[in-house]
Design a protein that fits this description.
The protein has 20 helices and twelve strands. The protein has 581 residues and is α/β, with parallel strands linked by helices. It has three domains: 13-18 and 91-321, ABC transporter transmembrane region fold, CATH 1.20.1560.10; 338-417 and 499-581, 3-Layer(aba) Sandwich (Rossmann fold), CATH 3.40.50; 422-496, 3-Layer(aba) Sandwich (Rossmann fold). The protein has a six-stranded mixed beta sheet with strand order 6-9-10-3-11-12. Strands 2-1-4-5 form a four-stranded antiparallel beta sheet, with helices on one face. Strands 7-8 form a two-stranded antiparallel sheet. Strand 9 (499-503), helix 18 and strand 10 form a beta-alpha-beta unit. Helix 2 (20-49) packs parallel to helix 5 (119-161) and helix 3 packs antiparallel against helix 5. The two termini are 53 Å apart.
Length: 581
Amino acid sequence: MNMKTSQLVKRLLHYVKPYRFLLFIAIVSSFISVAASLLTPVLIGDAIDFIIGKDNVDFSQVLKYIGYLGITIAFATIFQWLLSWSTNKLSFSTVKDMREDLFNHIDKLPLKYIDSHSHGDLITRMGNDIEQISTGLLQGFSQLLNGVFTIAGTLIVMFIVNWLLALVVFLITPLSLFVATFIAKHTHDMFIKQATVQGKLSGFGEEMISNSKVVQAFSYGDDAQKYYEEVNQELYNYGYKAQFYSAMSNPCTRFVNGLVYAAVGITGALIAVTYHTITPGLLSTFLMYSNQYTKPFNEITGVITELQTAMASARRVFAVLDEPAESDDSMLPEITDCDGTVKLEDVSFGYTEDRILLQHIDLAVSNGQKIAIVGPTGCGKTTLINLLMRYYDVTDGRIVVSSHPVTEVKRDSLRKCFGMVLQETWLTGGTIKENIAYGRRDATDEEIIAAAKAANAHGFITKMHDGYDTVVSEGGDNLSQGQKQLLCIARIMLTLPPMLILDEATSSIDTRTEIKIQKAFNTMMQGRTSFIVAHRLSTIKEADLILVMNDGNIIEKGTHEQLLAKKGFYYNLYNSQFAPV
């Protein structure tokens, strides 16, 4: 999405709106601070006029102005501190809200979006890009407020004091504006490209780190290093150009400042010598004003780097926030009493419109039935499970759970009907007890231990140093794959939902433990509708109904004995597992 800068600013101001009182404090503080700083050159100039001439120093007047100067500087310091406090609080409060909105929105995005975007890039948007916006807001509010007030205030005071010298300063102003505009224009595109490539680099780095075992097993390290260096070099090129253009701002504006200072000094000296209408103190005041007037141009152009980076980051953050979330279902009813029945009526589905994966599937499942789904890799088994959980919506047809079309009930209530154990394990950072109780945070220790025993996890847990209080690293990297799988099974044993989905749930467990787990599953599945995805066909012999899938279609249905008797696709698939290689 190519959002205009004005739209970005408007959306950022929307986040600032709840903290407009802090913005008001910042504006008032900036105004008073600048007013005090504008008074300082006048006081210094008047004091200088009392020390001009031989034996003509009026110490009493000089001391009086020194006192005034001290009070003025104290005022400027206090309100400058207040400006910094208010802008800091405003910035951090704003990005806190933005970060929360981004996280909540990502939680509501359809799985299709998450699956099709680099996870590392999304993490970069939540972390680095938000921080860049924070930095830009901090710099922008304080620098721009002070800069605008200083430029306007100084110019007004200079015209009041001496319009001719003020005109000299004013005529050189467009040169400063031209320099600032030129630099901003050339840095903008570079910072957008830099932010994009940075996300790409983070995504690749996250992918390599999280799959480091596979990378090393296939000796892909050198190739990964080469690709990383290429992307890193691309980031370097964009970053170098962006920093080069932005770094030009300070020396260029300092050059313009020098021109203004020299023009004021020469013009003022000529007026003083020729017409004697300007005193040395007044000329000193004007020279200080010329510095004050041009200094904000330095600061504003100096902060262009942060502002451009913040705008580029804001585009990336708002691009995610603008992605359509899952349709609002807050007004829909809940499934309050799940009876375990499921119907698929002429269901078709494709991840893309031009490639339909599942075609015209019809299925009726009664309460308590054990349904096994088998077939070769890529035939649509897991896709069918994703549709049941409504991670994706069907392209055609409809799915009915407990007499409710799944599109007409709240997703949360639908998903609470199912308990899932997947082939891919996931554990959160925390204790073993917290991981087992992930779906039931109010569970007692006795219930947690009973669930672990049912999952055959109690034995290895008690052998660990802290038992159930053992801290699991994020992702469970300090546990074996089998142990992680057992904890995921215990998590479901604790919740005991009305329906179960077991997608290769025992794939990482040894055969002996698998037999024990199967017995536990059989006990748990009594009276519960169960969907079992399995490659090892020997584990689903007791299923009430076996669905044989191939190329997105259910090509055979029946019990294990019925399908073997047909001597069709399932017969060949089953016997191939026992055939010699």
